Known about the structure:
Blueprint (H helix, E strand, L loop, with lengths): L1 H10 L1 H8 L4 E4 L4 E4 L2 H6 L3 H4 L4 H6 L7 H8 L3 E6 L5 E10 L5 E8 L2 H30 L12 H10 L6 E4 L6 H10 L8 E5 L5 H9 E2 L12 E2 L1 H4 L4 E5 L6 H13 L1 E2 L8 E2 L3 E6 L3 H7 L4 H7 L2 E4 L9 H16 L5 E2 L1 H9 L5 H15 L4 E2 L6 H4 L16 H19 L3 H8 L3 H12 L4
Parallel strand pairs: 6-13, 6-14, 7-10, 10-13, 15-16
Antiparallel strand pairs: 1-2, 1-5, 3-4, 4-5, 8-9, 11-12
Helix pairs in contact: 15-17, 19-20, 19-21, 20-21
Amino acid sequence: MKRINVILKEINYGRILNEMFDDLAIVDKDGRMIYVTNGFEEKYNVKKKYVIGRSITELEKQKILNPSVAKKVFETGKKVIMSHKNKKGDYLIINGVPIYNDNGSIQYVVSYSIPSDEIKSLQTERDKLLEKLEEYQQALTHLQDYLKQDMTSLIGAKITFEIIKKIKSYDVSVLFTGESGVGKTTFAKFLHENSPRAKGPFVEISCGAIPENLLESELFGYKKGAFTGASHEGKMGLIQTANQGTLFLDEIGELPLKLQVKLLKALQKKTIIPLGDTKEIEVDFRLITATNKDLKKMVEEGTFREDLFYRINVVTIDIPPLRQRTEDCVVLIKYFTDKFNLKYDMKKRIEGTAVKRLCSYPWPGNIRELENTIERLILMGDEDIITINNLPDSIKDEQKHTYSSFDCGKGTLPEMMKEYEKSIIKRAAKEHKTSVEVAKQLGISQPTAARKIKEYTNEDL
């Protein structure tokens, strides 16, 4: 003991240790306390001169060391980290480190507690990890439920998603309206896959993509020899193919008046007659349609049948264009960046200013245009970081468009995602009186909602 004190005194290690550690203690091979720093007195509520020279067993019995980490080090022969309760009732995390002699035996055990600020930092990191784990578990549950879906256009489209959830179990006709590229087909598939007809076929046809003279045979089918050029075996129509499933007619506004009459009869009678045949075939299908035209105006102009219009739009769901869902832009950019990085085995990211410029662009082609743009940026960029200079000229020129109402801000994508989250939480907190209501709206747990409201608004709900 004298020897180590002399050494410490000579090279002033004692002062160094006092500056470095609040409560460092050294125990010799006989289990006796030979040195403690000044902070040991305050943390353990005991005088230094009382513990020096006493055995760790005695100090343990007196609850000064409760328990002794040095004793555990001697027992195990290796470094030990354990929880310790001092006489004040404070819990400490203690490190016990063995110091070996030339023979490999423990000569000393040095112990010290982890500083309280480090513990708080670890607790904060733990809370963040638990929060992330909760979010990932929710996301995993969501993905497991809808694994087969392309969820791109559902991101941020909460109102549309809620309507679909309400009607998915009812066999009613649904009309999706909205501009080209907003995700009408994706929503139609989503509705089918979450309906009682999910095990049946999903048959899709674009009424504007097939010439009028061929569209009738595609929809209703034909018998062999029904017309010149017909297959010798005949062909089953898409309506019959959709039996027990869903028929999705995209661009329904392009359906000729003649075929509108036939489709209406098929919906009313639940039967069809293929071309060249006289026998009715029973069909059972759910009809989902979509259009980017104003069908009511077409009815007034006489280009769309009024009776068919009321038959197909039992439920109408309008999907707003991306320029009206500007707060979705950051989320969609991240989604597509992750998607194409995974697809092409890349690790590219988009710089903050480039994200901001992308968010300000009006996207006339909607989500489809945004997806194609991000894919092109991922593939064509020479560097791992995509800057504003890599954007297409039409997007890069800020004079051609104004910034969106949601300010993406500056910084990395995670930082902007944080700002995006902040705006959502603050808006929800204004709309609702309790954190329970906020949690229900946003699909998160009440504790998470309360914690985020406190973090972003400094208020308790």
